[in-house]
């Protein structure tokens, strides 16, 4: 999508200018290469209080697309791995959306505290519970950090199933952006009904309860996807 030399030039500019230029370029590519189909958006219009949006994760385009869809009404803050800011290309993406950084595969207490404060303060949150992009398109096992955030905030959870972004902006052989160029793709975004964590059953083991909650959350996403995308949540 952007050559290293162009990215280096853009990053040398003031941040406000960088964001404006990057948004222009990305929106131009979306308009040319993506056919968006949104389904079920009306299901969340009557939801009170802050929302935690959750979605499967296929591509570095996912966050930019969901921000485009949700910003006007919900303006979500994205939970993003801090390593995204280390790459000059993905850094441009994080600059385009509101986000809070979190250390992957660790108990990042400071990040969790900041996230909980945001939601309790009325902000909507967008999180990819798998924690990373699927390399195959099929869902992978979710991370349990979402459970802690949901319990501490008691916010409604809105599942989203998305397909087509792995074609629009695929992952390359190195597992990187893969976005030397966009490919034309039909991008489908399907919203599910708002959900809450199930209640703990009497005498239920905490580990078993956490597993049941994760299965429930992740299947709320999988149920919105075609069979080949469901992965471990078929």
Automatic annotation (TrEMBL):
Classification via Pfam families: Acyltransferase (PF01553)
CDD domains on file: LPLAT_AGPAT-like
Residue ranges annotated for the Phospholipid/glycerol acyltransferase domain, each copy included: 51-165
SMART domains: PlsC
Claim: RNA-binding is one of the keywords in the record: no
Keywords: Acyltransferase, Transferase
Molecular function GO labels: acyltransferase activity
Keyword Transcription listed: no
Descriptive protein name: 1-acyl-sn-glycerol-3-phosphate acyltransferase
Organism annotation: Clostridium gallinarum
């Amino acid at each position: 999508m952007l050559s290293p030399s162009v990215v280096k030039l853009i990053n040398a500019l003031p941040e406000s200018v960088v964001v404006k230029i990057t948004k222009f370029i990305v929106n131009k590519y979306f308009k040319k290469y993506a056919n968006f189909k949104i389904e079920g958006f009306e299901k969340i219009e009557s939801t009170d209080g802050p929302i935690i949006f959750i979605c499967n994760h296929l591509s570095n385009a996912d966050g930019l697309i969901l921000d485009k869809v949700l910003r006007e009404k919900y303006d979500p803050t994205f939970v993003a791995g801090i390593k995204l800011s280390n790459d000059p290309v993905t850094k441009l993406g994080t600059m385009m959306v509101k986000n809070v950084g979190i250390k992957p595969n660790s108990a990042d207490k400071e990040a969790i505290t900041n996230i909980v404060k945001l939601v309790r303060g009325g902000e909507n949150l967008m999180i990819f519970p798998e924690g990373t992009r699927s390399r195959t398109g099929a869902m992978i096992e979710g991370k349990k950090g979402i459970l802690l955030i949901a319990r501490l905030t008691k916010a409604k959870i809105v599942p989203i199933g998305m397909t087509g972004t792995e074609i629009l902006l695929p992952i390359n052989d190195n597992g990187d952006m893969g976005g030397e160029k966009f490919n034309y793709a039909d991008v489908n975004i399907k919203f599910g009904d708002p959900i809450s964590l199930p209640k703990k059953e009497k005498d239920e083991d905490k580990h078993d309860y956490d597993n049941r909650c994760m299965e429930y959350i992740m299947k709320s996403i999988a149920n919105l996807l075609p069979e080949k995308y469901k992965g471990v949540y078929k």
